[in-house]
Amino acid sequence: MNDTYYQPQTSRTSDAAAESIPSPDGHSNLINTDYTIGQDNITSGFWGLKVDLHSQVFAWSSLVILAFVTITLALPDVMGPFFGGIRSYLTSNLSWAFMLSTNVFVVLAIVLIFSPLGRVRLGGTKATPDFSYPGWFAMLFAAGMGVGLMFYCVSEPLTYFNDLRSGTTGPLGQQLSTDEDAKALGMAATIFHWGMHPWATYAIIALALALFSFNKGLPLTMRSVFYPILGERVWGWPGHVVDVLAVFATLFGLATSLGLGASQASAGLNALFGVPNTSTTMVLLVLGITAVTLVSVIAGVEKGVRRVSQVNMMLAIVLMLFVLVMGPTLLIVTGAADNLMNYLQELPVLANPFGREDDAFIHGWTAFYWAWWISWSPFVGMFIARVSRGRTVREFLIAVLLVPTLVSVIWMSTFGETALWQLSQGYEGANNAALELQLFAMLKELPLASITSLVGIVLVMVFFITSSDSGSLVIDSITSGGKVSSPRTQRIFWVMVEAAIAIALLLGGGLTALQAAVLITGVPFMLVVLTSGYSVVQGLRSEPRV
């Protein structure tokens, strides 16, 4: 084994020169390559702005995205039905593939936890963690949870409950005779979409990125994960395609979150202040959220991302604790434990992709969720990889799978149990409200409704600002050839592109278009994640263990 570290060379032609990847401590099995970070980059300035861009990845990513935005905005009447058709086709024909893939990710993660490969340490045999357990756990959760927590924490439990009581469109195609049974299965299905399956997807990508960067000495970019398969060809067109797919997946995943957040914030403003809940309001919200995100980007990682993340976590905890205390506290506490057990009990059935009779549930919910999580995996995986150096594979996988899953159980139980309790007491507000309004309708039945609803609106926006800030950093890293740092104007460009995609999708089909976009990008990137699983096993087999 090598005690030395292959340090990828970097181009220093811009003020924001690339930072080197931390050297492994102790033994690691390095990959020797002649590739230098930034060797294919364009570093000349445009209109006085300095750039440091990978010539092929940036060009193809930006051109295809800008063409998509232009066509969608120019032909909304055509693109709306197109998005509806493509969403229906993909969910009807590929739901099984999304479900089977995420099952593979979960099984692979569990096998690695209990196998000798779990004793490999990320960053070398003597590497030490950069963060304490509490700090690391907080960042793991903050990395992958976003607007969806706010959008679906009330609507999902209520929808499943009603479907299970009234017909066969609910989880598992069942019609349950008691409210208690419907609540139990509905909450289990909710947690299923926010539990181990999505986090296993993140874990595999994050583990692959960390392994091939911190242990193998390759650039922190998606193409590096394919080195065991492609060899030196990974620096050519095959690698360009992988990185472009990662950019597409991240951009459309973030744009979907921004669109959902804008629609929910618009509904909240309408309920609180009578602001018209129209496409114009949503577009203005997208522009406003983007403006704040740009301020965070310009402030930099330390002043921008860190402070916004702290505000995000603080507001989320305050809102959850408020609902816990002011809602049915005992029911929430006992319900969380019951929901966890029900989730584990129903997990094999809910995860089974074959022979199901609940097509409406699978096509309308599970397939979209799995595609959404997969589309988020490049940027969330890269963030998790960056903060997990020094952890063993076993320690890493246990934390990434279990900690966020438990937090999801607590969050969904707090809001879901409260909404279901209100319904059982005859309060129909949340149950009768539109999807994007259900959270605010639930809060309306609790004290200080105006204040908590305003906090909810702010939290929706802050959740996206945090995700967009981190996501633009990752996209910029990929499109600059794996450089950790590059001119800030490039991140500003990608934040604006996210906004343009979100606006185009909102005007070109609304929620259906947002979901279709995630499905379209999720299909090819599903194959990328599956291949990453193979590469992880191959890479770990050659690593020394502690």
UniProtKB/TrEMBL annotation:
Taxonomic path: Bacteria, Pseudomonadati, Pseudomonadota, Gammaproteobacteria, Aeromonadales
One GO cellular component term noted in the UniProt record for this chain: plasma membrane
Topology in membrane: Multi-pass membrane protein
Ranges of compositional bias, category Polar residues: 1-14
Cited PANTHER family: HIGH-AFFINITY CHOLINE TRANSPORT PROTEIN (PTHR30047:SF7), HIGH-AFFINITY CHOLINE TRANSPORT PROTEIN-RELATED (PTHR30047)
Alphabetical list of InterPro entries matching this protein: BCCT_transptr
Region (Disordered): 1-27
UniProt keyword 4Fe-4S present: no
Protein family: Belongs to the BCCT transporter (TC 2.A.15) family.
Official protein name in the record: BCCT transporter
GO molecular function, a single term: transmembrane transporter activity
This protein's UniProt keywords: Cell membrane, Membrane, Transmembrane, Transmembrane helix, Transport
